[in-house]
């Protein structure tokens, strides 16, 4: 909930901007940390959800590791003080330059996404006299039951290696003296709200864990990725995920040896609810069939609605009217998909009103762009 004091502060600020409630962020991180500790689980934060420095500092202080998907994310995490021994690097297209830099930083693990990549990392590690720790990202063919654009664990997706390629992986590993296989990795999609999906994932992980044992590999790590969804419809009622229930599913259903570690890579669930995009109404257009609110923020600041038809709760945080009107809430960008919500019921709104687009802390600011030569969006904290 945006407090009256916070909203009063916004009155003097130039819009649009991201507002981060760092208190809520800390509470969320602490809830997750203590739940993970209870089960002895390890959490790496997926930087791609939000690499704003204040957010990263809060995550680092919690003691989480960093899950990176580009060389620059690896660099940034280490620059900001994350322990390289807690940095993992995934990504379906790691360039040689990115791999070399990560090798030079002695990161904890490469999550490898193809048989070919194993050979490339081995070669680059050999040239430097290093041994690279690797985990194989396996595509478990589990349907995440989420939006088609954010499901990643089906055989038709580009991510990871498929199960029928595991024999080739082992053959390749045997030919790669500068690689050490430490685990298997999975990430089946994002914004997963049906916890049954994670049970299905556990079943697959168990199967594959045994498969590796049968082939002579005692894996040290089972990395089950991220993907835990948040409540976009009720950000105030469900501002912090029930991390304990989430972890307890893995605790119950993952068969593991006592010395085997379970790793998670959470992004969205840690940072989504602490962020809102704050914007002002520039124009109100009353049409015959539709009323439009035209904001000073658009898809250049928050792309999720345009990119995945994602829902965000939209609030008029300054109107005092008790008349309710339906509006299409749109941005100023020259694209028809630049729309935050259709037929949104709001108090009657006027030019200059402040609007909050909620649950925008994950995949918001980080996806902002300079399209239409827009200014980079600013951020405000409390
Ligand atoms: C994006 C991503 C995550 C984080 O996903 P969330 O849905 O934000 O939790 C974790 N692991 C990998 C490999 C990813 O690409």
TrEMBL record:
It catalyses: meso-2,6-diaminopimelate + H(+) = L-lysine + CO2. Coiled coil: none annotated. Pathway: Amino-acid biosynthesis; L-lysine biosynthesis via DAP pathway; L-lysine from DL-2,6-diaminopimelate: step 1/1. The keyword Lyase applies. Its cofactor is pyridoxal 5'-phosphate. Gene3D superfamilies: Alanine racemase, Lyase, Ornithine Decarboxylase, Chain A, domain 1. Keywords: Amino-acid biosynthesis, Decarboxylase, Lyase, Lysine biosynthesis, Pyridoxal phosphate. Residues 17-361 form the Orn/DAP/Arg decarboxylase 2 C-terminal domain. The keyword Lyase applies. The modification N6-(pyridoxal phosphate)lysine is found at residue 48. It comes from the Bacteria. Its EC number is 4.1.1.20. Residues 29-272 form the Orn/DAP/Arg decarboxylase 2 N-terminal domain. The active site is at 334 (proton donor). SUPFAM superfamilies: Alanine racemase C-terminal domain-like, PLP-binding barrel. One of its GO terms (biological process) is lysine biosynthetic process via diaminopimelate. NCBIfam families: lysA. Belongs to the Orn/Lys/Arg decarboxylase class-II family. This is Diaminopimelate decarboxylase. It comes from Daejeonella rubra.
């Amino acid at each position: 909930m945006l407090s009256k004091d916070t909203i009063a502060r916004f009155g003097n600020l130039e819009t649009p901007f991201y507002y981060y409630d760092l208190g809520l962020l800390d509470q969320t991180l602490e809830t997750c940390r203590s739940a993970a500790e209870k089960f002895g689980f390890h959490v790496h934060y997926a930087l791609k959800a939000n690499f704003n420095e204040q957010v990263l500092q809060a995550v680092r202080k919690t003691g989480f590791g960093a899950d990176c998907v580009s060389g620059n994310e690896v660099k940034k995490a280490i620059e900001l003080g994350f322990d390289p021994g807690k940095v993992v690097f995934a990504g379906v297209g790691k360039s040689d330059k990115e791999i070399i830099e990560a090798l030079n930083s002695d990161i904890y693990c490469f999550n490898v996404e193809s048989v070919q990549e194993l050979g490339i990392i081995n070669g680059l590690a050999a040239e430097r006299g290093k041994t690279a720790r690797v985990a194989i990202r396996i595509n478990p063919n589990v349907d995440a039951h989420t939006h088609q654009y954010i499901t990643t664990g089906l055989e038709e997706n580009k991510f990871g290696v498929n199960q029928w390629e595991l024999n080739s992986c082992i053959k390749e590993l045997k030919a790669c003296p500068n690689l050490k296989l430490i685990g298997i990795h999975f990430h089946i999609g994002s914004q997963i709200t049906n916890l049954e999906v994670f049970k299905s994932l556990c079943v697959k992980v168990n199967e594959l864990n045994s498969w590796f044992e049968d082939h002579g590999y005692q894996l040290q790590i089972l990395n089950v990725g991220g993907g835990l969804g948040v409540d976009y419809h009720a950000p105030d009622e469900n501002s912090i995920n029930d991390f304990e229930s989430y972890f307890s599913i893995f605790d119950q259903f993952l068969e593991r040896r006592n010395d085997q570690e379970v790793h998670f890579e959470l992004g969205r669930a840690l940072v989504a609810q602490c962020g809102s995009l704050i914007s002002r109404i520039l124009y109100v257009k009353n049409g015959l069939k539709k009323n439009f609110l035209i904001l000073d923020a658009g898809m250049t600041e928050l792309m999720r609605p345009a990119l995945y038809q994602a829902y965000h709760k939209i609030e008029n945080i300054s109107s005092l009217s008790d008349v309710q009107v339906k509006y299409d809430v749109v941005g100023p960008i020259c694209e028809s998909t630049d729309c935050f919500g259709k037929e949104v019921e709001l108090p009657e709104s006027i030019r200059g009103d402040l609007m909050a687009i909620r649950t925008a802390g994950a995949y918001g600011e980080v996806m902002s762009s300079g399209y239409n030569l827009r200014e980079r969006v600013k951020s405000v904290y409390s």
